[in-house]
Amino acid sequence: MKTLALVMIVKNEEKHLARCLQSVQQIVDNIVIVDTGSTDATKEIAYSFGANVFDFEWVNDFSAARNYALMQSTCDWNLVLDADEYIVNDCKGIIRHFIETNGRTIGRIKLVNEFIQNGERRYAQSYLSRLLPKGVTYSGRIHEQVDSPFPRKNVHVEVYHDGYVHTNKTERNLELLLQELKQHPTDDYVLYQVGKQYKLLQQFNMAEKYFEKSYRLVPLHASYRHTLVVDYLYTIIANRSFEQGLQVIAIEKKRLDDSPDFHFACGLFYMDAIFCHMDRYAHLFPLIERCFTRCLEIGETEKYDRVRGTGSFLAAYNLGVFYEVTGQIEKAVHFYKQAADEGYGKAIERLNRLLGK
After folding, report:
1. Most buried pick, 37, 85, 248, 296, via CB within 10 A?
2. Assign residue 60 a region: left if phi > 0, alpha if psi is -120 to 50, beta otherwise?
3. End-to-end CA distance of the chain
4. How many whole angstroms separate alpha carbon 23 and alpha carbon 4?
């Protein structure tokens, strides 16, 4: 029988670590935790779960720490998690089947990131390479990537991450990424990650600058290209760079026609462009309805990393708003009901107001 270790790097994670370890302790055979300088109760919590704890002097390089941690594992397979992540589905049998029936393969698990947007909780999901056969390592100072030619395969393991809500490591991440960029100034992935950090800091002019550089360099087959395009569009909306946005949409509309997130961003783009410059962009008005309708046609696809709701309740709500402001109340009620049935609070409020409740 193949053996499996949980492999982690941590620092001052006493608030989150127990939750993570509780979610995996019945799944793994061993727990390896590398501490990079905790001054709280992190180590004590790790020991209480029977973890093998090692110290590592932090050198501003996540891959160096990850690879040191992987070296301490004696198991056939390694599951890599962060302290603010935790497994939420019953997946022990799924993981065991995967590691017994796959050899030179990387397992990709579903990571659901909780974040706040416009005062609302949203959930973005993506598949990340986290189930690694022994010997596989990482590269990259930050936002480290699995460095292996082995094929990737999705595994039905769902992990929640709420670190973006409870902690803010954006400035630290940005500093490390800018160091990485000095060494690799044309690395499209690092440029993309720099743009993401500036976007999180709401420095949208800087974000757009780096997204544009990445967009010009990124290969068509890159796994993160779809997310780059969507993030780029949201930054363009924030900066009201509407002519640039029209160019990006024209380039991508066929390639990303099956992406609800792309069409959702396009719908918001058209709304904002018309609101800011009615005289110049009024001809785009019919495209708003078309974009959100297309989102619902596609639905909640698993093909792309995405924000939950862009293929369902968020798109239905925006269609409801569109029909309400254009006086098509019956249609507005229909789509508000659709979003409300999925528990979307803003749709429930507008529906109740329209119905006089």
Report:
1. 85
2. left
3. 61
4. 15
Kindly report, residue by residue over 169-217, the tens digit of the pLDDT: 788 889 999 999 999 999 999 999 999 999 999 999 999 999 999 999 9
Residue 38's nearest CA partner among 19, 52, 17 is 17
pLDDT digits (tens, 9 = 90+) for 262-309: 999 999 999 999 999 999 999 999 999 999 999 999 999 999 999 999
The sign of the torsion formed by the CA atoms of 98, 101, 102, 103 equals positive
Strand (E) or helix (H) holding 281: helix 278-281
Cα three-residue angle 212-215-219, rounded to 5 degrees:
165
Partners of 34 in beta bridges: 9, 54
Q: What is the DSSP string of 218-238?
A: --TT-TTHHHHHHHHHHHHHH
Q: Which helix (H) or strand (E) is 120 found in, with range?
A: strand 120-133
* Cα atoms found within 13 Å of the Cα of residue 286, Cβ hemisphere only: 1
- CATH class of segment(s) 170-354: mainly alpha
Can 4-166 and 170-354 be said to share one CATH topology? no
CA dist list (Å): 6 to 87, 137, 144, 286, 309: 12, 15, 18, 51, 32
Q: What is the mean pLDDT of residues 46-67?
A: 97
Do residues 297 and 258 lie in contact, with contact meaning Cβ atoms separated by under 8 Å?
no
What does the domain layout of the chain look like in residue ranges?
4-166, 170-354
pLDDT by residue (tens digit) across 206-230? 999 999 999 999 999 999 999 999 9
